[in-house]
Design a protein that fits this description.
There is one protein chain. By secondary structure, the chain is α+β, with helices and mostly antiparallel strands. The protein folds into three domains: 1-36; 41-209, no CATH class; 228-380, no CATH class. It has twelve helices and 15 strands. It has helices at residues 2-35, 58-65, 82-96, 131-142, 185-197, 205-211, 262-274, 290-305, 311-317, 331-336, 338-341, 347-351, and strands at 51-55, 108-112, 121-126, 150-154, 157-163, 169-175, 178-182, 220-224, 238-246, 250-259, 279-281, 284-287, 325-330, 359-366, 373-380. The protein has a 15-stranded antiparallel β-sheet, with helices on both faces. A hairpin with an 8-residue loop joins strand 2 and strand 3 (121-126). The N and C termini lie far apart (79 Å).
């Protein structure tokens, strides 16, 4: 009797181990197949892009963003465009169909092209094993009327064109591990050119240095093809990096500036800074002189201390004085007179000034590190 029990337990254990082994093998095989689909999205982005947005976990950003005090005021920022539509609709569709976005699809890139409008963007997703069908089903559901997607071929690659309305179309290009989407078919063709000719941003010597920088666990980063402070007038082509960090009342953008010749650029920036006059007027403070910065910081602190407290003065008083350039700007004043601020602010901030009007901006630049580094702090007025 005891022997039969041992044999029975041994049989059950053998079956259980076999099932576990098969399950583990299947899981590892699927996991390996997904990891093999981790395409470098920057091997697709055309080098003509004027800006790029990257995230390794876009859902984490949107979940955090929704709880912020100022989220409703920034919901129409220009840069999301197609990206905003796709993420919103995909999340809703995935939730309704009990699927959810995979880890691969949470990793995405958006490139911006001239002229910079919400329609001149390309969105790039990595795709997990089940994502292709999810995306296809969603696009079929959102198609205009009863039309089928139109298929065209460009340089041997298939482009699917989905009608979204009577005058709006979405072009998609899908291969194993990724999908590319844009309202403009010509931009999808530029992606294919960049991929086949190996001329994408991932091959650019300056931009590839930007990508080597270590990122935080869940990041959202904007890269701009220009100096972060236009008045510095970089002589060689470069990129500025803006890592987004959020809390309930403040948006932080931090990062570095990269140029083809870092040594010459630091010397060039130092010369440019010497020519920037100190400005202290309503809604604007600019200084590239440490002594002047310290003086106006103390003045702003005293003004707040004597009952003339304003958020603008508080932002001036809270500057760090051991940096090479400082700026404080009331974004409402930027909205009212954008030309006055064009020398000091990146174009995407000028273009979105009406949405940022409820913030005071503080910006500082330092030349002490390996690369020129900057921090942009948007403090919510309300």
């Amino acid at each position: 009797m005891r022997l039969k029990t041992v044999v029975k337990l041994g049989t059950i254990l053998s079956v259980l181990l076999f099932v576990l082994a098969v399950g583990y093998y299947a899981f590892m095989r699927l996991d390996m197949m997904d990891r093999n689909r981790n395409v470098d999205l920057f091997s697709l982005v055309p080098s003509s892009s004027v800006g790029v947005l990257e995230s390794n976990n876009v859902n984490a950003f949107f979940n955090e963003y929704a709880s912020l005090n100022y989220s409703s005021e920034l919901q129409n920022m220009q840069f999301p465009g197609l990206f905003n539509f796709l993420i919103h609709e995909l999340n809703m569709y995935a939730g309704d169909n009990a699927h959810g976005l995979s880890n691969q699809m949470n990793q995405l890139v958006v490139s911006f092209h001239q002229p910079v409008t919400p329609h001149n963007q390309v969105v790039y997703f990595r795709l997990g094993m089940a994502d292709e069908q999810l995306l296809s089903d969603m696009l079929q559901e959102y198609m205009y009327g009863n039309f089928l997607p139109k298929e065209e071929t460009y340089r041997g690659k298939k482009i699917q064109i989905y009608p979204l309305s009577h005058d709006e179309f979405l072009a998609t290009y899908t291969e194993e591990g990724f999908v590319v989407l844009s309202y403009q078919k010509r931009l999808v063709e530029e992606v294919i050119d960049a991929q086949l000719d190996e001329t994408a941003l991932g091959y650019d010597s300056v931009f590839s240095r930007v990508l080597k920088k270590k990122k935080s666990k869940d990041f959202l980063t904007l890269y701009g093809r220009s100096s972060s402070i236009p008045v510095l007038d970089l002589k060689s082509e470069g990129w500025s990096e803006y890592d987004f960090h959020l809390n309930s009342d403040v948006v932080y953008l931090t990062g570095d500036m990269y140029a083809s010749d870092e040594t010459d650029e630091k010397e060039n920036i130092s010369q440019c800074l010497k020519d920037i006059p100190v400005v202290k007027e309503e809604g604007l403070f600019v200084s590239a002189e440490k002594d002047s910065t310290a003086y106006y910081m103390a003045e702003a602190f005293d003004a707040n201390d004597t009952g003339n407290r304003t958020l603008f003065n508080e932002c001036v008083a809270n500057l760090a004085n051991e940096v090479d350039f400082s700026l404080v700007a009331d974004m409402q004043k930027v909205e009212e007179n954008p030309q006055r601020f064009q020398s000091y602010l990146p174009s995407f901030m000028i273009e979105n000034a009406s949405l940022l009007r409820s913030f005071i901006l503080s910006a500082q630049l330092s030349l002490n590190g390996e690369h020129p580094s900057h921090i942009w702090v948007f403090t919510y007025k309300n």
